[in-house]
Amino acid sequence: MIQVTSTISINEREIGETFIRSSGPGGQNVNKVSSKAVLRFDVRGSTALPERVRQRALTQLGSRLTSDGVLILQCSTSRDQSRNRAEVLERLRDLLVAATIAPRRRRPTRPSRGAVERRITAKKQRGSLKRERTRADD
C-alpha cells in the first residue's frame, strides 16, 4: 500500500511499473541494466481515490494524462533502479496530495471609495501632463 494521505492509500496492484534501459551517462552499465523506472496509474479507473479527488486530479493532470486517463511518470535521474522507483513513487504521491487540496473559493471584493478616488485623480493628473506637452496653436 502506498500512503497518499492519512485517509487515502493506493493498492500497489493499481500501479503498473516497468523498468527499461536508461539513456545518459553510465558507461557499459547503461547497456546492461534497466534502471529507468516507468510508472502507470489509471486515475480515471482508480478505486482508491474518492470521487472529488479523482475529478480534481483529472483536471489538474489533464495534459499529462493519456486519452484513457492513465498517468505515466518516468524517472532516470539515478543509475540505481531502486532510487528511480522511489523517486517516481514520490512524484505520484506529490501529485495526488496536490489533488486532495481543495481550491479556496474566491470572495468577490470591491475597491474602497478612497482607492477609486485616488485612481481617478492620478488619471486626471496624467492626462493634464500629456495635454501640457502638446504645442499651443500660435
Description:
The protein is an alpha+beta fold and 138 residues long. It has one domain: Double Stranded RNA Binding Domain (2-Layer Sandwich), CATH 3.30.160. The protein has helices at 29-32, 51-60, 81-100, 113-133, and strands at 2-3, 9-10, 15-20, 36-42, 70-75. Strand 1 (2-3) and strand 2 (9-10) form a beta hairpin. Helix 2 (51-60) crosses helix 3 (81-100). It is elongated, with a radius of gyration of 27 Å. The mean pLDDT is 81.
Write the layout of secondary structure elements.
Layout: E1 2-3, E2 9-10, E3 15-20, H1 29-32, E4 36-42, H2 51-60, E5 70-75, H3 81-100, H4 113-133
Antiparallel strand pairs: 1-2, 3-4, 4-5
Helix pairs in contact: 2-3
User: What does the radius of gyration come to?
Assistant: 27 Å
Terminal CA distance: 86 Å
Return residue spans where pLDDT drops below 50 for at least 5 consecutive residues.
none
Largest sheet: 3 strands, antiparallel
Q: Helix count?
A: 4
Order of helices and strands: EEEHEHEHH
Keyphrases for this structure?
single chain; 138 residues; alpha+beta; Double Stranded RNA Binding Domain; three-stranded antiparallel β-sheet; two-stranded antiparallel sheet; 4 helices; 40% helix; elongated
Please outline what is shown here:
With 138 residues, the protein is an alpha+beta fold.
